[in-house]
Amino acid sequence: MIYFTKQEKFVVVFLAGALLAGAGVLSYRHVSHRAAGSSGTVSPSARAEACAASGITRVRVSGAVLHPGVYEAAVGSTAFDAVDRAVPCGDADLTNLANDVPVTDGLEIVVPRSDSVIGGTPDARININTAGVDELDALPGIGPHLAERIVARRRTAPFQEIDDLKNVSGIGEKKFAALKDRIRTK
């Protein structure tokens, strides 16, 4: 009978795991390559056919919604159905949403905000509690990664006042000073 030391057992288990992981990667590449065709990419028409066969389309929803992202929708669903799943904000302007047109795979829906009016003039400041990553990214000094951090922070607790933005990692006094006149919480 063969006896292994603790160190030898570790090496055998490690090699077996590496072998299995390698086999899994090769299998995945083989399957995805076959599904994608010889070019390695899926053509839009092939994706449309696959979606029609499965009865599912993918739609990206952004703008004045609480949960921007990519949503799966049944073939025949409307833009309103997709926006409803993303939860429209209170100031979302849904009047121009095509309620009778079915969504197609790869469609991007940007929900506009209605004009908020304070004291008779439109309020152009961005609401940091409802703005999507794209809107936050448009602010000076805010890139996509910092915009993601802002969205992640407000998921745990909405911003009560604009000063709460300083609690987000990456926003100090200097950056906040550049933003304070361009943002709001309500």
Descriptive terms for the model:
flat, 6 helices, 7 strands, 3-stranded mixed sheet, 40% helix, 186 residues, alpha/beta, DNA polymerase, domain 1
- The gyration radius over C-alpha positions equals 24 Å
Round the mean pLDDT to the nearest integer and report it. Answer: 77
Uncertain ranges? 31-40, 116-121
* N- to C-terminal distance: 75 Å
Order of the strands making up the biggest sheet: 2-1-3
How many domain regions? 3
Tell me the β content: 5-15%
Secondary structure tally, helices? 6
Total count of strands:
7
Structural class: alpha/beta
Looking at the structure, what is the overall shape? Answer: flat
Helical content band: 40-55%
H and E order: HHEEHEEEEHHHE
- Main sheet, how many strands, which sense, barrel? 3 strands, mixed
Task: Give structural notes.
It is a single chain. The chain has three domains: 1-39; 44-111, no CATH class; 117-184, Photosystem II 12 kDa extrinsic protein (DNA polymerase, domain 1, Orthogonal Bundle), CATH 1.10.150.320. It has helices at residues 6-36, 44-54, 79-86, 133-137, 144-156, 173-179; strands spanning 56-63, 69-74, 107-111, 117-118, 121-122, 126-127, 183-184. It starts with 5 loop residues before the first helix and ends with a strand. The chain has a three-stranded mixed sheet. A two-stranded antiparallel sheet has the order 4-5. The chain is flat, with a radius of gyration of 24 Å. The chain is an alpha/beta fold and 186 residues long.
